[in-house]
Amino acid sequence: MLNVKSSGKKDAKVVFELGPGESEHHVSVVGDFNSWDPYATPMKRRRDGTQRAKIKVRAGLTYEFKYLSDDGTWFCDPDAETRLSAEGEPNSVLRVD
After folding, report:
1. Which pTM value belongs to this model?
2. How far apart are CA 33 and CA 30, in angstroms?
3. Phi, psi (degrees; rounded to nearest 5) at 23
4. What CA–CA distances, in Å, run from 88 to 17, 83, 85?
5. Could you give the CA distance from residue 16 to residue 29 in angstroms, rounded to a whole number?
6. For the residues of 4-26, what is the DSSP string, one character each?
7. Are 11 and 56 in contact (CB under 8 A)?
8. Which residues pair with 92 in a beta bridge?
9. Which architecture does CATH list for 2-96?
10. pLDDT per residue of the chain (97 residues) written in tens, 0 to 9
C-alpha cells in the first residue's frame, strides 16, 4: 500500500506498507529517491506484522522503486503501477503530484 500526502508545494510524504503475509523477511524500499541504495530506507516491522517505511520526496515527479528483502529477493509493490526499466525489468511506479 502506498500513501502519499503533500506537505507543501515542493515536498510530499510517502508511506510504504507491506501487509503481514507479503514478506516474512526484513525489507527495504529501494528506488530513484534514494539512489537505489538498499540500506537507505529499511522498513520497520510493526506488532501487527506489517512493515512500514516513510520518506519525503519532491512533489511533481515520478519515481521508480522496488522492495528488496534481506534474502536478496526483489519484488514490486502489488498495489502500484509497474513499468519496464531500461534493463527490461519491472519496477513499481510512484507518481507524486
Report:
1. 0.90
2. 8
3. -160, 130
4. 26, 9, 5
5. 8
6. EEE-SSSEEEEEEEE-TTT-SS-
7. yes
8. 65, 82
9. Sandwich (2.60)
10. 777 766 567 889 999 999 988 888 999 999 999 999 999 999 999 999 999 999 999 988 999 999 999 999 999 998 899 999 888 999 999 998 8
